[in-house]
Design a protein that fits this description.
The radius of gyration is 18 Å and the shape is globular. Helices cover 32% and strands 27% of the residues. A hairpin with a 2-residue loop joins strand 4 and strand 5. The two termini are 31 Å apart. The chain has a five-stranded antiparallel β-sheet, with helices on one face. It has a four-stranded mixed β-sheet with strand order 4-5-1-11, covered by helices on one side. The longest helix is centred in the N-terminal third of the chain and has 22 residues.
Amino acid sequence: MIIICYSFIEKENHALLIRRYLKVFSINFQNKILRYKIWSDAQLSILGRIMLFDIVKNKFNIIVNDNDIEFIKNNKPVFKDIKIHFNISHSLHISTCVVTKNGRIGVDIEKIGDNKFEDFAFCFTDKEKDKICESAEKSHLIVDIWTKKESLIKLLGEGLMIPLNKIETECGNDNLVIYNSQIFNIKKIHIANDYCCYICSEFPITNIYLKEFVPDIKN
């Protein structure tokens, strides 16, 4: 099973959310949250971590906290001794978290905007450039291809070490991407009309559980 949760930030609830949840995290993570100068950045980050702990508790019956997380190459967070894989992504007003026991997984979410091909041309393969040039909705397609690639990068945890134009999304199957001769599975996840979201995995993507997460700020 693949569990995906998402949550929308709300400015009017920010102080209550901080008061309710910040204390459950380590001092290091608390300091990270408090260093944010923009409330939305802080809330996106804290929601991602809250959703992760909530999913692992309610779907796998395991209680985890910050001490169970370590950072590996390129500062990618993973669980130390728990065979559960996760990834977190956020964009503008939405935070997302994906969790599974099946294997490594990545997620990326991006706001759809007025994107110019010239600004992103260096990211695309020749096949992708041809498709974009022929498309009547270039801005949407640019974000779609970008998000596919980013979901793979998030899975691998390689960050900017991977040239985006070395990832091929035009491989004859909308549910696959290719990098370094290896095939990865992808799937588009609808969360909001003005956002694009993809998950990427090393295994076939089936049995998806998708739910909006609403933080409990009453306690």
